[in-house]
């Protein structure tokens, strides 16, 4: 019986040798062969090998990603810092430019204020000066009117005296021409000069008081000041220093229109 059912020896994974015989042993053998207490032991070892390789690759990729992110972050940080620096420099330059322009405008405003003040002072000074000149012009106008009135009065007086003198001397000349009197001292007109000191009377009798005492060719038209003798013409007044009638020093000559 034992030969028909040979004894089967089964060595378990634990190292214990098991012997079985007969159908029961075979059945147990089949059952034991079909039963594997660790059916996934070999696949787990393979997967562990692949898992280690994948984990290493993932770790390396993670390191590369971290390095790439860190590099990119550093690059972005540097770019941002450079951009901020450029913006800061631009803002500083713009601020300085604005301050410079403001200072220039303030200087211009200050100069304009000074010029305005100077112009205001000049206007005030010119206003005062204009008032002074206006008052002076009014004074001069009043003086000129007074002098004009005085001159007209003097001329009227001289004209009146000359007319009276001509009327009187005309009668005397007629009487002397009829009598043919004797002359001890005669001038160019043939009339006696009895009194050398009375030049005015002799002049009026000799020339009728109308002709220039200097040249005797032109009509007297300049009144000498201050003696007020109408005795020289407009051509001779510049060459006369003393009055030809009274020998008074001439200070001025006034042109008189006798028309």
From TrEMBL:
**Record region (Disordered):** 167-198
Which residue intervals are annotated with compositional bias (Basic and acidic residues) in the record?
188-197
Per the record, the domain of life is: Eukaryota
The protein's UniProt keywords, in alphabetical order, are: Coiled coil, Metal-binding, Zinc, Zinc-finger
Question: Which InterPro entries has this protein been placed in?
Answer: Znf_RING, Znf_RING/FYVE/PHD
Q: Where is the signal peptide?
A: none
Which GO molecular function annotations are given, in alphabetical order? zinc ion binding
Q: Which PROSITE patterns match?
A: ZF_RING_2 (PS50089)
Stretches assigned to coiled coil: 102-164
Write one Pfam family the protein is assigned to: zf-C3HC4_3
Magnesium as a keyword?
no
What the entry lists under CDD domains is as follows: mRING-HC-C3HC5_CGRF1-like
Describe the location of the RING-type domain by residue ranges.
212-247
* Protein name stated in the entry: Putative E3 ubiquitin-protein ligase BOI
Organism placement in taxonomy: Eukaryota, Viridiplantae, Streptophyta, Embryophyta, Tracheophyta
């Amino acid at each position: 019986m034992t030969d028909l059912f040979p004894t089967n020896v089964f060595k378990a994974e634990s190292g214990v040798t098991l012997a079985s015989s007969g159908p029961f042993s075979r059945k147990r053998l089949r059952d034991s062969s079909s039963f594997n207490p660790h059916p996934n032991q070999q696949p787990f070892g393979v997967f562990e090998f692949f898992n280690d390789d994948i984990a290493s690759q993932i770790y390396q990729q993670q390191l590369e990603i971290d390095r790439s992110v860190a590099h990119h972050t550093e690059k972005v940080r540097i770019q941002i810092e450079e951009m901020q620096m450029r913006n800061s420099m631009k803002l500083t330059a713009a601020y300085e430019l604005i301050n410079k322009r403001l200072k220039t405008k303030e200087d211009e405003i200050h100069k304009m204020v000074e010029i305005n003040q100077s112009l205001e002072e000049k206007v005030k000074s010119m206003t005062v000066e204009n008032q002074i000149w206006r008052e002076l012009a009014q004074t001069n106008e009043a003086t000129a009117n007074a002098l004009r009135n005085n001159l007209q009065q003097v001329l009227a007086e001289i004209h009146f005296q000359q007319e009276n003198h001509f009327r009187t001397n005309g009668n005397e000349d007629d009487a002397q021409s009829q009598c043919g009197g004797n002359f001890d001292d005669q001038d160019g007109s043939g009339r006696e000069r009895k009194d050398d000191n009375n030049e005015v009377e002799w002049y009026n009798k000799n020339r009728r008081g109308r002709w220039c005492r200097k040249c005797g060719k032109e009509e007297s038209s300049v009144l000498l000041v201050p003696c007020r003798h109408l005795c020289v013409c407009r051509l001779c007044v510049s060459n006369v220093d003393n009055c030809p009638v009274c020998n008074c020093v001439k200070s001025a000559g006034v042109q008189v229109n006798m028309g």
